[in-house]
Write a structure and sequence with these properties.
With 248 residues, the chain is an alpha+beta fold. The protein is 54% helix and 16% strand.
Length: 248
C-alpha cells in the first residue's frame, strides 16, 4: 500500500512538470511585450523572453504528450497532463504565429504607396535621430521586395479637391489613434507616429496629398524605427488607412 501511494505521489510530481513549465512560459510571454513597452528592459530582452517562453512551452507540450503515452500516467493524471499541454499550446501560439508571419512577408520595415518618389519625413526627423533604422528610403531593393510581397499597396486617387482630401486624411489618422506630429496643409503633408500595442514600438508615418487634375492623389509611407523586419505591420497599417479613407 505504501509503495502504491509513493508511486502515485511520484506520478503527480511528474504530471505537474508540464503544467509548471507551461505556466512559466505563459507568464514570460505575457510580460515580454508590456515590460518592453514600459521600458523595464530593452526590446531585445523582450525578444529573448519570448524565445525562452517558446522553448519552454514546446518542452511542456512534448513532455505532456510523452507522459500521455505511458498508460499509468495517462490513467492517473491524464487531466493534469492535458491542462499542461493546453497551457503550453497557449504560450507557444503567439510567438509561433509571429515567426510564421515573419517568414511569409517581405523582410523590410519601410512601406510606401509610391516607391519611385516616397513621401519624405520632415518634422519627425529629430524624433528618429537615435533610431537604428534610417529615415531615408532604402531604394530599388526595398521597392522590389515590397512589389513582390504587397503588390496591392499603391497610391490612392480620390475624386475630391486636395483641401477636402487633406482634412479627411487627418481625421482618419486621428481616428486610428496616431499621434499627429505635423500637419501642413500648404504642403499637403501630415506626419504622425503610431505605437504598436504589444511591445510599444514607434512606427512613423508620412502622408502626402497632391492635386491630380480635379482630384487628389494620396500617398502614405510607414517606417519602423527599430527592427529589420516589421512582420507586416507597416503594410497592414497602410491598408487600414486607405480602406478608411476610401470605404467601398
Amino acid at each position: 500500500m505504501a509503495v502504491s501511494t509513493n508511486l502515485q505521489e511520484q506520478g503527480v510530481r511528474f504530471a505537474r512538470i508540464p503544467v509548471v513549465l507551461a505556466s512559466v512560459a505563459l507568464l514570460l510571454v505575457l510580460i515580454s511585450g508590456p515590460g518592453t513597452r514600459l521600458e523595464l528592459w530593452h526590446f531585445r530582452t523582450g525578444f529573448m523572453l519570448m524565445t525562452g517562453a517558446t522553448i519552454m512551452a514546446l518542452g511542456a507540450l512534448a513532455l505532456g504528450l510523452l507522459l500521455l503515452l505511458v498508460p499509468r500516467a495517462r490513467r492517473g493524471h491524464g487531466k493534469l497532463l492535458v491542462v499542461g499541454m493546453a497551457l503550453g499550446l497557449a504560450a507557444a501560439a503567439m510567438p509561433l504565429l509571429g515567426a510564421y508571419t515573419a517568414r511569409t512577408v517581405p523582410f523590410i520595415h519601410d512601406v510606401s504607396t509610391d516607391t519611385q518618389r516616397p513621401p519624405e519625413f520632415v518634422a519627425i526627423l529629430p524624433l528618429r535621430a537615435d533610431a537604428p533604422n534610417p529615415a531615408a528610403y532604402g531604394g530599388p531593393q526595398v521597392a522590389a521586395a515590397q512589389l513582390a510581397g504587397y503588390p496591392d499597396i499603391r497610391s490612392l486617387v480620390l475624386e475630391i479637391a486636395p483641401p477636402e482630401a487633406f482634412a479627411r486624411a487627418g481625421e482618419v489618422a486621428r481616428d486610428m489613434g496616431w499621434e499627429i506630429v505635423a500637419s501642413v496643409p500648404r504642403e499637403g503633408r501630415i506626419e504622425a507616429t503610431d505605437t504598436t500595442f504589444w511591445y510599444g514600438f514607434k512606427d512613423d508615418i508620412v502622408i502626402r496629398i497632391e492635386p491630380e487634375a480635379a482630384a487628389s492623389r494620396i500617398d502614405i509611407r510607414s517606417v519602423s524605427r527599430v527592427g529589420k523586419s516589421d512582420v507586416g505591420k507597416n503594410a497592414a497599417r497602410i491598408r487600414a488607412f486607405l480602406a478608411r479613407l476610401n470605404p467601398r
